[in-house]
Amino acid sequence: MQFSVSSRLSYEVRAQTVFVLNVEAAALRNQKILTEQLDLSPGVALDRYVLDGGTRLVRAVVEPGTFEVAYTATVELDMHDADPAQVAETPIAQMPLEVMPFLNPSRYCQSDMLGRFAQRQFGGLLPGHPRVTAICNWIYEQVDYQSGTSDSQTSAYDTMVQRAGVCRDFAHLGIAFCRALGIPARFASAYAWQLDPPDFHAVFECYLDGAWYIFDPTRKAAIQGLVRIGVGRDAADAAFATIHGDAQMTAMSVSIEPVAEDGAVPDTEPTVRAVGIA
Amino acid sequence: MQFSVSSRLSYEVRAQTVFVLNVEAAALRNQKILTEQLDLSPGVALDRYVLDGGTRLVRAVVEPGTFEVAYTATVELDMHDADPAQVAETPIAQMPLEVMPFLNPSRYCQSDMLGRFAQRQFGGLLPGHPRVTAICNWIYEQVDYQSGTSDSQTSAYDTMVQRAGVCRDFAHLGIAFCRALGIPARFASAYAWQLDPPDFHAVFECYLDGAWYIFDPTRKAAIQGLVRIGVGRDAADAAFATIHGDAQMTAMSVSIEPVAEDGAVPDTEPTVRAVGIA
Amino acid sequence: MQFSVSSRLSYEVRAQTVFVLNVEAAALRNQKILTEQLDLSPGVALDRYVLDGGTRLVRAVVEPGTFEVAYTATVELDMHDADPAQVAETPIAQMPLEVMPFLNPSRYCQSDMLGRFAQRQFGGLLPGHPRVTAICNWIYEQVDYQSGTSDSQTSAYDTMVQRAGVCRDFAHLGIAFCRALGIPARFASAYAWQLDPPDFHAVFECYLDGAWYIFDPTRKAAIQGLVRIGVGRDAADAAFATIHGDAQMTAMSVSIEPVAEDGAVPDTEPTVRAVGIA
Amino acid sequence: MQFSVSSRLSYEVRAQTVFVLNVEAAALRNQKILTEQLDLSPGVALDRYVLDGGTRLVRAVVEPGTFEVAYTATVELDMHDADPAQVAETPIAQMPLEVMPFLNPSRYCQSDMLGRFAQRQFGGLLPGHPRVTAICNWIYEQVDYQSGTSDSQTSAYDTMVQRAGVCRDFAHLGIAFCRALGIPARFASAYAWQLDPPDFHAVFECYLDGAWYIFDPTRKAAIQGLVRIGVGRDAADAAFATIHGDAQMTAMSVSIEPVAEDGAVPDTEPTVRAVGIA
Predict the structure, then answer these.
(1) Shortest Cα distance, chain A CAs vs residue B171, angstroms
(2) pLDDT over 60 (residue C40)
(3) Contacting residues of A for D98, CB less than 8 Å apart
């Protein structure tokens, strides 16, 4: 399934500023970038780097004035529908060792402190994809999705008590529960089809049965229409723009649409099927 | 129903030390102290004060050496059994204003942060004594009672995430939920009949229907055998001994037994009946 | 020295609402209320209560519509200038026992967690009023006064790390340090002369040498022009309005001016002198 | 300079257990492993993985009974002494992009919350190695090194308030300050020459002037005698043993000694020189 994505960021730069941008689709096995274009205006030299997990960073040094970032791409997602009941958890003994750091607690996902609750609530469930779905359902039912109830310092620990947040908080709580149960989990920012209003979205991925599977406890977007951008431990690793200097964002727009392939109308369904993305 | 209570504290005092002790039964309307004796050894002058809520403080300045505190009392608890279904919550509009500070958050009971969960979980229940019982049941079922899982800095916020603690943590969580729902709640330390092993216990009280009702979410003691000692906002107000100086506790024992009244064997039942203690 | 104070609060009430108001000058020994008037519009019956520390609560049940609260008073502050060097700390052994709860940690003042820093930074200073002034100076120098950096959940623990806040945060930090050093301390909301822009202010008081002394680490108001309103453990005890129901504040104004007494121009000085207010 | 290091861990395994061990010297450019041997007893198959930063993980599935891990190695540290005044900070604009994740906050290093203090305290200092040394000196002077004052949940946020901890807390605070100032910083566990009593140690490294420089704010070990083991975001990434199953450690010993090279007696000096370890 193909998607056309775009984002446009405008800044007023008041002093020389270093931007580290992360708006390009991530380099993932199941996410093929067919075409893409990144325009910086004014045009400036840029450095690029692809982090281990596939996150693509761009750095630009920008002089005072107006600065615009425009990104467009066509991305093919090669997601396969699996039968959730067949997607098992990978035993620690067989898990690729490079995946194991995603069991560690991180800034916003204090899995070390949520273990007792996670075990009590989800420990008795059948392991595998349905257990992570149960986690997502619990978050959806127990946490209010409400702007303004959390901020950039809010962590899973806080959300567990305060029971309100936005997509990144939902993702952090899901990640923390999974890690507490021995399931490697990572954060992903994304272009999210059908997210309304359009914005950068946050979801999470679990390593199950040899692949990373995607989950969205907010149920706000189509699970098979998530073009991942930044992939990392948690939101600390996936800011779309990090600004070192003095600049103010003046406008932002984000879009994603499916590319019609021989007239087929894609079918959408929130976080219920097992969607493998390895 | 009458109880014979006693406590004995032993200290090794290494430099002149000020002790503020709170081991005597509180001065409460429904808790009549029939006889009592406080012995300090060596005998030292002491100051006394009764706080607003009935907590009785004793201060002693003690020179280096061995210091022993021995307290014994016979206390009559005038508890009345009410039909829980008849014990309503007092509307804010009719609540005595002096009770309202017990709606405020305190050190260990951050009711301001637990409101959303409390409303979601308990807000739809019929107001009154059964709602507080539902809170106690939830705590009993969701939090592990386990020594060593919490310390003197652990608050209701932490217990809500970590789901383990001891009697004071159970009481703090109950208080926080009640305050969040508009029910005044306070902490009480107590001599607790049938607590095994014997120790100072912690419970909480709610202001309902014109009186303070007692609750013990731990279910570890007989609800009608609680002789209250310190009553306050939370555990910060109810330490049995505060030590300013240099002294080390070397031994402690606590006991409580019902006093046989014409051969009647008292009947015990954990936190299920409405026990009024106004 | 006399002050004329006033406040006016306007609300849009959408459903029957219980207001608990605390805008009247507190009943304190050194704060004589010469004249005062509280007007509620529409006029509604009200209940009154004076808390132990002198805080005066008013409760009103208000029907839907516009609701206005207007308070004016003339208050004489009987503050005496003491020589700070002569204002000692009261030893625990001699402190009135009713003052001792103000040594306990509270919601926003976790003195139990700040003890090591307080001892290290201020423990070696000469005890007494100058030590509390040193605490105020430290706060003034180390914490940025900046709106929007804190919220109603911010505590002294947070401010110690984040180093920014507003008047209530400054007061909470001062209280926490004092309690950690064995100095009873309490929070006070106040009409504050020369505060610019005019607003309700927050300061703190310490029990020293037999009286409560006032301190303002923000240096934003005249220390001798503080008409106290709510006095308590911390901001949790001193909200100017607590709303149970559905009402929205639409306007608020606060003022305080010295009343000319035989032409004398009062002299103002920020938090440097010892100002006793017992 | 060469060191002979060893560690021996003994466990009582009660049910099949997966061990993830990280006791081998890390694969770092300036740390050459001349000889090494890892013995597991009973001998079991093991998986190996080298994480991006050089951390070497070993996984073993162990059946019930006694389990022993013995590691010995000879390691040559190729540290060069630089003139600290010549070791500059790398501007964000020139920093390798792969280093930038070490600017992000992590579980135990909430650099996002410590920025104001870091700027205020260290922001005005001359950038470069001496600034990080100033950070280490501040930590050494302001935080008590004391066992039992912190636990596995203690973070830099807590240590900033509570001012006590052990080596990992010292490292976390140093890392948090550095990241807050725009200096990439990472955590390292180590065999530490002259640490008394011998144990695994924790230090941190900063990316300065094109290389990772090592710092030890505890001053408890010889800065040029640190054989790094686990390198990561913080202590969450550098446990010497992670146990999935049911096993109890029964004994542990750690040692490190310089290997005499032509009779030279190595000279030791705590955290003052710039020691480059790129």
Answers:
(1) 17
(2) yes
(3) 49, 51
A neighbours by CB contacts (3+ pairs under 8 Å): B, D
Nearest residue in chain B measured CA to CA from A157: B161
CA distances from C158 to A138, B104, C144, C202 (A): 30, 20, 13, 18
The rounded distance, in Å, linking the Cα atoms of C143 and C156 is 11
Strand boundaries in chain C, DSSP class E? 2-21, 31-41, 46-50, 56-62, 65-77, 80-82, 144-145, 164-165, 185-192, 200-208, 211-215, 226-232, 241-258, 274-276
For chain D, list the domains and their CATH numbers: 2-78+239-258 (2.60.40.2250), 80-191+205-231+267-276 (3.10.620.30)
Q: Extract the tokens encoding C191.
A: 């009409």
Shortest CA gap B157–chain A (Å): 7
In this predicted structure, the answer to whether residue C80 has a pLDDT above a threshold of 70 is: yes
Q: Do A93 and D18 touch (CB under 8 A)?
A: yes
Burial of B86 (0-12, 13-18, 19+ CB in 10 A): exposed
What proportion of chain B, given as a percentage, has pLDDT over 70?
A: 94
Nearest CA-CA distance, residue D261 and chain A, Å: 37
Residues with Cβ within 8 Å of C78's Cβ and at least 6 positions away in sequence, in order, are C30, C31, C32
Give the span between the Cα atoms of A67 and A16, in whole angstroms: 11
Give me the residue from D49, D92, D237 closest to A18, CB to CB. Answer: D92
- The helix (run of H) or strand (run of E) holding residue D135 is helix D129-142
For residues A10 and D1, which has the higher predicted lDDT (pLDDT)? Answer: A10
Sheet holding D211-215, edge to edge: D80-82, D274-276, D211-215, D200-208, D185-192, D226-232
Section D19-26 average pLDDT: 97
For C120, the closest chain D residue by CA position comes to D142
Residues of C with CB under 8 A from a CB of D: 113-114, 116-117, 120, 142, 144, 157, 160-164
Name residue, tokens 């305190």.
B106
> What CA–CA distance (Å, rounded) separates B196 from A38?
70
Q: Do B48 and C106 touch (CB under 8 A)?
A: no
Mean pLDDT score, A172-201: 97
**CA distance linking residue A170 with residue A187, whole number of Å:** 11
* Secondary structure of residue A81 in the 3-state scheme: strand
Q: With 70 as the cut, is the pLDDT of residue D161 above it?
A: yes
Residue B82: what pLDDT?
85
Encode pLDDT of D68-107 as tens digits. Answer: 999 999 999 988 778 999 999 999 999 999 999 999 999 9
Q: Which region among A79-88, A260-269, B10-19, B181-190 has the lowest average model confidence (pLDDT)?
A: A260-269
Pair D59, A97: CB distance under 8 Å: yes
pLDDT at B260 over 90: no
| Residue environment code for C195-205, b if the CB has 16+ CB neighbours within 10 A, otherwise e | beebbbbbbbb
Structure tokens at C205: 């008081």
CA distance A123 to C208: 55
Three-state helix/strand/coil letters over A168-233:
HHHHHHHHHHHHHCCCCEEEEEEEECCCCCCCEEEEEEEEECCEEEEECCCCCCCHHHEEEEEEEC
CA distance D52 to D192: 23
Q: What is the pLDDT of residue D82?
A: 85
Q: Which residue has the tokens 């009647």?
A: B264
Residue A262 pLDDT: 62
Given this model, what pLDDT does residue C278 score? 42
- D193 class by beta-carbon count within 10 Å (0-12 exposed, 13-18 middle, 19+ buried): buried
Q: What digits encode the pLDDT tens for the residues A123-141?
A: 999 999 999 999 999 999 9
CA distance B96 to C48: 10
From CA D237, how far away is CA D233, in angstroms rounded?
6
Q: Is the pLDDT of residue B52 over 90?
A: no
CA-based radius of gyration for chain D:
19
